[in-house]
């Protein structure tokens, strides 16, 4: 990988080649959200009124989970201010879009916009960055987890995607609530409590069986879809000392119809370069990036990225490598030796043990 460049360095070189309308909000994106809300209401009515068999209800749960995920992607777009600009409308629409995922707009903007985007893949400041081998010495739980063979860890990690967004969102609330002005904290608490209260209230209204098919199972499905993207966004990339979007982010490719229902969330490098422009224009941004820096840009098919995640450990070693401390195997990261078509490892000069200690290899 060539030397790191800042986000502003890239943006300054690309901005003159993008149309002025790219920087304007695109309220028509809300039509997609309205379509998903109509499908959700129809799904609720079908489960509640039609007395379908289990297979019919499972199919509806899958559709609802997909709709919840898509609304989450739209909420992400709304809260970046690329759909509407007026703050109270932005937050209201963002709250509605994130309602199924039970994440409030104030928390999301604090966690995602103000910290993740500003400090992407900074091992100390990015709230979404994965841990480093230093954590082995600091946490008994991490040491215990990394005693488990990689295949079992990877399988568990894949299955846990069905809960990860909800769990991580709760953790982010705990981390950031104290950073809000005391006058604003009641609002942030309310944005957390209201969605959960509405869904729990729905449980008592329609009963557990129907609630399972309209909320609990769809929530797990939505978590899995959202986290499948989020996991590919950065977890194959290195930790970086400079917020370089071409080094620390990965765009995945999916069929065009998937991009349509997921609001172009697959264009993640483009999003980190220009979070304030509508994803509608990300294909153009991608084209311009590949014209100028084809050797820096990282992209791969979504399924290939998921397989690469499964085959590599989620523990960083010296920022540019991923390490499996149980076996002492070290893998490259994107731009630093990771070949998604032929994932391999080396033992390096040190074997890193799950107890956090390391031992130099005999020469």
Rough outline: globular
Percent in helix: 55-70%
Count of individual helical segments: 15
In terms of DSSP E residues, the strand content is: 5-15%
Question: Mind summarizing the main beta sheet?
Answer: 3 strands, antiparallel
Number of strands: 7
> What structural class do helix, strand and pairing data support?
mainly alpha
Distance between the termini: 29 Å
Order of helices and strands: HHHHHHHHHHHEHHHEHEEEEE
Q: What is the oligomeric state here?
A: single chain
User: Rg from C-alpha positions?
Assistant: 21 Å
The overall pLDDT, averaged over residues, is: 93
| pLDDT < 50 runs, ≥5 residues | none
**Largest sheet: spatial strand order:** 3-4-5
Model description:
By secondary structure, the protein is mainly alpha-helical. The strands form three sheets. The chain has a three-stranded antiparallel beta sheet with strand order 3-4-5, with no helix packed on it. Strands 1-2 form a two-stranded parallel ribbon. It has a two-stranded antiparallel ribbon with strand order 6-7. Strand 3 and strand 4 form a beta hairpin. The radius of gyration is 21 Å and the shape is globular. The protein starts with 6 loop residues before the first helix and ends with a strand. The mean pLDDT is 93.
Write a concise synopsis of the structure shown.
The chain has helices at 7-14, 30-49, 54-78, 87-98, 105-116, 135-138, 140-145, 150-176, 185-206, 208-234, 245-248, 256-261, 268-273, 282-292, 302-311, and strands spanning 251-253, 299-301, 316-317, 321-324, 329-332, 350-352, 358-360. The protein has 363 residues and is mainly alpha-helical. The longest helix has 27 residues, at 150-176.
């Amino acid at each position: 990988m060539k030397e790191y460049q800042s986000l502003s360095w890239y943006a300054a070189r690309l901005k003159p080649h993008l149309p002025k309308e790219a920087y304007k909000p695109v309220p028509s994106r809300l039509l997609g959200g309205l379509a998903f809300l109509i499908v959700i209401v129809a799904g609720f009515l079908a489960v509640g009124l039609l007395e379908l068999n289990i297979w019919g209800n499972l199919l509806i749960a899958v559709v609802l989970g997909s709709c919840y995920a898509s609304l989450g992607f739209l909420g992400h777009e709304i809260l970046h201010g690329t759909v509407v600009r007026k703050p109270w409308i932005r937050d209201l629409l963002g709250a509605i879009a994130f309602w199924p995922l039970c994440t409030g707009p104030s928390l999301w903007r604090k966690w995602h916009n103000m910290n993740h985007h500003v400090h992407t893949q900074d091992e100390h400041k990015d709230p979404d960055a994965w841990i480093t081998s230093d954590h082995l010495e600091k946490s008994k739980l991490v040491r215990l987890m990394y005693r488990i063979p990689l295949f079992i860890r990877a399988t568990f990690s894949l299955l846990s995607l069905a809960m990860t967004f909800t769990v991580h969102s709760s953790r982010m609330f705990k981390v950031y609530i104290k950073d809000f002005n005391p006058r604003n904290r009641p609002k942030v608490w309310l944005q957390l409590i209201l969605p959960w209260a509405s869904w729990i209230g729905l449980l008592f209204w329609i009963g557990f069986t129907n609630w399972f098919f309209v909320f609990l199972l769809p929530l797990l499905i939505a978590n899995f879809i959202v986290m499948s993207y989020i996991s590919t966004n950065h977890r194959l990339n290195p930790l970086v000392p400079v917020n370089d979007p071409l080094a620390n982010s990965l765009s995945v490719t999916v069929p065009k119809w998937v991009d349509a229902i997921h609001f172009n969330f697959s264009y993640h490098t483009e999003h980190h370069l220009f979070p304030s422009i509508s994803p509608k224009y990300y294909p153009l941004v991608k084209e311009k990036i590949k014209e100028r820096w084809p050797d820096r840009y990282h992209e791969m098919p979504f399924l290939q990225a998921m397989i690469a995640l499964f085959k590599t450990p989620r523990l960083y070693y010296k920022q540019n490598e991923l390490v499996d401390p149980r076996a002492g195997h070290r893998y490259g990261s994107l731009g630093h030796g990771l070949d998604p078509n032929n994932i391999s490892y080396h033992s390096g000069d040190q074997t890193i043990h799950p107890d956090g200690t390391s031992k130099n290899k005999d020469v």
